[in-house]
Amino acid sequence: MAEQDIFPYLQPTAATPAAALPVMRECAWDFVRDAPVLRGGVPVIVLREQAVAVWAWNALHTERFRWPCFSAGYGNEANALIGQSYQPETKRAEVQRYIEECLLACPYISAVTGMTVEAAGDRLTVSFSIISIYGEIKMEVEQDVG
Fold this sequence. Notes:
By secondary structure, the chain is an alpha+beta fold. Helices cover 23% and strands 32% of the residues. The strands form four sheets. The protein has a three-stranded antiparallel beta sheet, with helices on one face. Strands 1-6 form a two-stranded antiparallel sheet.
């Protein structure tokens, strides 16, 4: 019996090379209204880095494990911090971890860098850069951790 049969979870998995991924496509998103962009009732489609930004925005604003229409790997778990009596530094660190886990689930995203977390009461503003196969995308999101 081969070692891989005994311990299949120990086998390294290679990342999908960028060339093997199809061009990313998403429905354009109005980040201010938090709604899809429609033209004549038809969704506007964006490609590449704009599509990655839309995917990231929506994944970060979707509570993980809440909606059965999404896979278990999709969404953000920062809502789990609401009502927890963690120290502010612990909440900041957990928000960073949750955001990184959420974004790195996308095969088009290779890294999340330069993350800063600013607190105002129970609200955290998180700024960071997403390194995607299409380049760098700057993003800022707010998380309620009351």
